[in-house]
Amino acid sequence: MPGVGLPPLEQNVPPIALRNYGKWVDHEELRPGVLKHVAESGEACYTVRAGMPTNARVSTALARRIAGLADEFAEGHLRLTRRHSLELVGVDPARIDELTERLRKLGLPVGGTGRTFRNTVSCTGWIHCQFAATDAPAVAKAISDELYEDFLRERYPAKLKISISGCVNQCGEGSTADIGIIGVHRDLPRVIDEEVARCEIPLIVSVCPTGAIKPKPPKSVQVDPERCIHCVACAAPCQGMQIGDPETDGLAVVVGGKAGNSGSGPAFAKFVIPYLPNRPPRWPEVVQAVRRIVDLWVREARRDERIGDWISRIGWERFFQKTGLPVSEKHLDGYVLWPMSARTGVRFHW
Predict the structure, then answer these.
(1) Is 115 a member of any domain?
(2) Integer distance in angstroms from the first to the last C-alpha of the chain?
């Protein structure tokens, strides 16, 4: 209904896309970051994709420059992809090189299609989230800098998606990426009795997914260290439940996740490194771990084999042997009861 809700889609779709809406028959990648879609009519639509700053953080000054390029090269339209890449649709093929250079001068490299490293996704992290155990956008920046050349050229067996979540709530969706980096708390929630007394005790108890929180008379709670999984769920309804310690907070690495139906289908990533230290601004241990996994995958995977499919083929034992990563009791892969405790969902539940 006009005037209700968001603006109608057709107001924000490029004219070439409206003319051929639902009538596309083919597409091809001309080079990393440049796509050609062909309609039934024979009309071709050229799209240029570029990387964007992590967490899709854009100043108004940069936004105006991007909008200016969209006006000049793409009939006044642009879009952000699911992974925060910029796409200009309906570009004149004769001007693609010019647009590529203009984007490069803005610091927005053209690439990220086909068998390349895709734009890194992250949650807000320390920017404005009280639950974060790490600076997710800055970790994404460090990894993106390390793999920058792989965004521009195709040297991978398949596409590579890396996502960063500041805590186990997974707002950055690290568990469904080829490689996920997840911020982890290792301390128990600190119970501030005076603050908790002003909160709803039943609510604090009920939000704990593992039943680790019990009432403590007269009006407070206590945390069972054997059940607590440091998930920060209790901190949301009450400021008296405080979690996070600069000395012990860190990051975990998970691999093998994906949401698509290709290969062996959708899968949640599994832990391969339970803890790495927070060492801003470049997080060298995290970057080194990512590079080790990526280089091994590039050497040994088959064509179109995502990281999870490659590991499924060679087995987890050989993966750990080849990467040299240590195996410990903290890896969930051998825990046969995990479907019951996780209820096969993203969030853990008791």
Answers:
(1) no
(2) 44
Q: What is the CATH number of the domain that holds 227?
A: 3.30.70.20
Answer with the one of 71, 105, 139 that is the final residue of a domain.
105
The enclosing domain of 264 has a CATH number of: 3.30.413.10
Stated pTM of the model: 0.90
Please name the amino acid found at residue 232. V
Mean pLDDT of 151-160: 97
On whether both 60 and 17 belong to a single domain, the answer is yes
* Residue 104: Cβ within 10 Å count: 13
Strand intervals (E) in the chain: 24-31, 34-39, 44-50, 79-80, 86-89, 121-122, 162-165, 179-184, 190-191, 213-216, 220-223, 241-242, 250-255, 270-277
Task: Give the Cα separation of 121 and 332 in Å (integer).
Answer: 24
Is 4 a member of any domain? no
Which structural domain range is residue 67 located in?
9-105
SS3 47: strand
Residue 311 has pLDDT above 90, yes or no: yes
Q: Provide the pLDDT confidence category of residue 4 given band limits of 50, 70 and 90.
A: confident
Q: Residue 78's pLDDT is what?
A: 96
Is 113 contained in some domain?
A: no
**pLDDT, mean of residues 296-323:** 95
Residue 259, C-beta contacts closer than 8 angstroms, at least 6 positions apart: 176, 266
Residues 87 and 135 in one domain: no
Average pLDDT of the residues of the chain? 91
Cβ-based neighbour number of residue 1 at 10 Å: 5
